[in-house]
Request: fold
Amino acid sequence: MEKFISVFDMFKIGVGPSSSHTLGPWLAAKHMIKRVIALSDVKNINALHVYLYGSLAKTGKGHGTDTAILMGLQGEDPVTTDTRLIAQKVQAIKEQQTILLNGVHSIQFDYNNHLVFLKDKSLPYHPNAMQFVVELKDAVKTFTYYSVGGGFIETEASEDGLELGHLIEDKKETNIEVPFNFFSTNDLIHWCIKTGLPISDIVKENEKQLHTEQALEKGLDRLWKTMLDCIYKGVHAEGILPGGLQVHRRAHDLNAKLLKKEIQANKSSVESNLEGDTATNLDSNHLEQWMQQIQSGGADFTYILDWVSCFALAVNEENASFGRVVTAPTNGAAGVIPAVLMYAINFCNKGSQQDIHRFLLTANAIGILFKNGATISAAMGGCQAEIGVSSAMAAAGLTELLGGNQRQVLMAGEIAMEHHLGLTCDPVGGLVQIPCIERNTMGAIKAITAAQLALQSKPDYALVSLDKVIHTMWQTALDMNVKYKETADGGLAMQIPIGLAEC
Ligand code: SF4
Reply:
């Protein structure tokens, strides 16, 4: 059922590398514990088995599904957990063969036997399914969850009254009445014409039914700060990404090269700043200075192009390293929107707090249309559902910032998706690295091109509407062979020796 989705549910702060395979299962494990507490007591759990189905089983190891579930079972919060300690905590569970449920109740847990990857089985409702079979003192309960993309989770009919397709609502969202609900671009345009408001304000008025204006602004600031921190960490982290593919981080060297190229006069101070910064030691003064250096480097086409790539690479390298990222609308595609927003801030003079809020709110409108009209899950629709949707969201946000009218904003979203239709998901080794990291650079550049095309066009002459492209994307998803839907059974994933990636 179509519903309004808050900007804070579309953009969730969490941990990489995947929103559907990491963040969703993490939240599901936490939610399952919450349900046990509501029914009984977590201390009544004697034993626990976790079963992963379909895409979660096939690419779960590479996507960190096992890690996420273990963290969720311990009661860790993906928003606040110290990401540097994740590997250590998971290793301790494996070695000690015990797990501290919700941080209070220790049970025996053998990673190799209690967490089962059922690669040849799937559940009918959605390819990303998981079941928790919980042995309580007086009963055995099964809790089934589906991770439906972007960190959204749904649960199945159960004794505690939740029904199939029930969207888990830990935060305020959805069923609340909003003044300008929209199920299609026609609805959205209707509200824009009726009110004279830009798309960002339509969304803002809806959001104000869920939060105070002050809370909305604070939340949007927090989202952007998390995105910016992620970029900044990413450009200052070196080395090889985890997982066994031996993928080298590139954002670090590209950042250093671009700064050195353009700021020769300040070469020594720039270098000393780079040496001082680490992925875990952010300094806001350095961050400010870094942004100024980027902006003072000129407007050469390749200079801007390289920076946009650098921003996107930085986010997705952090994502691949279990770093803190914001789903936008997914983790695999988390670099597109921050990269395009950085482009707007640094090269289009659109860096005010209001600009950033407008960008995110407009992008959310497009994300809602795709989530309700098609999917944002690669396991359902391939990479068009991730990079394609993020590119459409970014294109729309940028177009509004650059002065496009509402129809041009929607047109930009349409153009961006039109040229991602049919894009398959074929992650090498089941890791969110190849082609995912580079693919974010492509999504960002296509978003900028789409925005420019829309700004230079008359939407009245466009033959393809955003609604039509959303429908086409969904039809393409239905037709797509399952091996191209986040299974690592087709495409590029079959071209690289798989043994390399097993982790
Ligand atoms: S190929 Fe695309 S959809 Fe698949 S994991 Fe990578 S970024 Fe996500």
Summary: Residues 332-333, 378, 383, 386-387, 425, 427, 432, 435-436, 439, 486 surround iron/sulfur cluster (CB under 6 Å). The radius of gyration is 22 Å.
